[in-house]
Design goal:
The chain is of the alpha+beta class. The protein has one domain (1-118, 194-264): Umud Fragment, subunit A. It is built from four helices and 14 strands.
């Protein structure tokens, strides 16, 4: 009896220690994950983001299915998955590729990737496919041009924006205020963006300037590029996207291997 009693007492002494050890392990795991999540939020909010290209507006510079690392360093800092952000000290340069929140509130301000063609104070006009900035023709070897050398959009700015049904109504009404001697003058704190695939790009010609507050960052590298239909990369198609990644494992030929690790 005495031996059994001693065993029970010893077991009871061990139980709290065991429970305490388990609680400590759980707590350490929680703390570890907390720091992992915090580090992710910091990196996502201030340093870099991963983006997938869903449209052909920047072809052939950036292709549908290109997976990019976008640098936010110096451009923008914010809380991921929220509208809270702060513009930083870097500003877009002319002809730099920029990721930004499109000023389209009725469409949810989607993120676009375009090339910065005009910075504050620039005078812009297009004659056919040729872009002029401050009276000088802009050298654009990156542009995907039409076979016949003409622009589907025509001259810009249009002589009568109110009659051009392709322009958003609010932009058609505002645009004449910024036109001087047939050139569009970019106002302070605003930028003029266009896609490299000029005849297939929904850009500043159609909806106007991009405020500095909307700038997110600039792409730095392509870490993956997959051939897949455009709709796979649209928001909300998570199932299709996951199936595409599985398909690539079986058919690696769908990866554009030569584009991997291409830098900008």
């Amino acid at each position: 009896m005495k031996a059994e009693t001693e065993e029970r007492v010893a077991a009871k002494k061990k139980e709290p220690a065991t429970a305490s050890t388990a609680q400590q392990r759980i707590w350490r795991e929680v703390v570890s994950w907390f720091w992992v999540i915090l580090a992710f939020l910091f990196i996502e909010g201030t340093l870099v983001q991963a983006r997938v290209i869903p449209s052909g507006s920047m072809e052939n510079t950036v292709l549908i299915g290109d997976h990019l690392i976008v640098s936010r360093i110096g451009f923008d800092a914010g809380v991921p998955f929220t509208p809270y952000h702060v513009p930083l000290w870097r500003n877009p340069k002319r002809q730099e590729i920029i990721v930004f929140r499109a000023p389209l509130p009725d469409e949810g301000n989607p993120d676009f990737i375009k090339r910065c063609i005009g910075i504050p104070g620039d005078r812009i006009k297009m004659v056919g496919e040729q872009v002029y900035v401050n009276g000088q023709p802009l050298n654009e070897p990156y542009v995907r041009r039409s076979p016949d050398g003409t622009s589907a959009f025509g001259h810009f700015p249009p002589s009568d924006p109110s009659m051009d049904g392709r322009l958003r109504p609010e932009w058609a009404a505002e645009l004449p205020q910024h036109v001087v001697n047939g050139e569009l003058v970019v106002p302070p704190g605003e930028y003029f963006m266009m896609g490299d695939n000029r005849d297939n790009s929904y850009d500043s010609r159609y909806w106007g300037f991009v405020p500095r507050d909307n700038i997110i960052g600039t792409p730095v590298i392509i870490y993956m590029s997959i051939r897949a239909p455009e709709e796979v990369w649209d928001p909300g198609h998570l199932g299709d996207r996951f199936a595409t990644y599985l398909e690539v494992i079986i058919h690696p030929g769908e990866v554009r291997w030569r584009r991997l690790f291409h830098t900008f």
